[in-house]
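Following up on my earlier thread - several people asked me to post the actual chain instead of describing it. Fair enough. Here it is, all 293 residues.
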Amino acid sequence: MSDNRNGIPYRRLGRTGEMVSLIGVGGYHLGRQAVDNGVNFLDNCWDYNGGASEIRMGKALRDGYRDKAFLMTKIDGRNKATAALQIDESLRRLQTDRIDLMQFHEVIRMTDPERVFGPDGALEAVTAAQRAGKIRYVGFTGHKSPAIHLKMLETARTQGFRFDAVQMPLNVMDAHYDSFAKQVLPVLVERDIGVLGMKPMGDPFVLVSGAVTAVECLHYAMNLPTSVVITGCDSLPVLEQALQAARSFRPLSEAAVAALLGRTAVAARDGKYELYKTTHHFDGTYQNPQWLG
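Reply from S.P.:
Thanks for posting it. Predicted structure:
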C-alpha cells in the first residue's frame, strides 16, 4: 500500500506496476459514484445482464471518466473467432478504444486451459488485440477449483505466456474448503501476478451463514495479499459500506484472523456456503454453452 485517493488505499497490480484501488466495483452499477469516491478499478463482463452492464458502464465513463478508471472486462469465448467478436463487442459497448485488463472468464473446466491455449484458441484473439492496442493486460478468472487455476497457470507457463492478473474467490469460508488462498495465492505472489479477490461475501451466501459481518468479510479479503477486492454494489448504501471498509482497513493481527477463521470453520465444512465451488449456481457458461463458441 503506497498511495490513496479520497481515503481509498491503492495497491500495485503485480508486476504491471499499475496502481489500483483496494476496492473494486463489480460491473453492474454505480460506476461514477465509485470513481468520484476514489475507486479506479471497475469490473465488468461481456455476458453480464445480456450486455447491458457494459452498455451502462460505457455511458458512465463518458465526460472524462474513462481516463480516471482502470477498466477490466471479461470474455467467454474459447476459440479465436468467438473471442475476437466478444472483444470488439465489449469495446463498442464500453465506448472505449482500449480495455486495461481483459480476462478469460469462468475458467471452471479442466478442459478450458487447453482450449484457450490450443490452435485457434482464444489466446490468439487476445494477443492480437493486445498487439493492436485494444488490450493492455491479460488475466483469467474462475470460481470452481484451485486445481483448474493451477492448470491454467501451468499451461501458460509451458507456452511461454505470463498472465498479468488472476481473479478468484477469497473469503473466510474459502480458507477452510478447497482453498484458493492456500493453493493458488502463494503461486501468484511468488510470480508477482496481480491478485484480484472476488466473492468476499460469497455472493452473498457467506453472510447468510450469520457467522461474520459484511465489513469483516471485506477486511479479511483486504488483509490477504490482494491487489483489489472486487465486490458487487447494487445500491448507494452498499457502495458506501464498501468505501468505508476500504478507508477503515488496517492490517489484521494474527489473533484477529484466527478468531474470524474460528467462527467460520464449522459453517465452511463441505462448501455449503460456497455454492460457486459446489454447484452450477454461478456457472453462466454452463447454462449458456454457446457463449464459449
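The chain has a mean pLDDT of 95. That should answer part of your original question.
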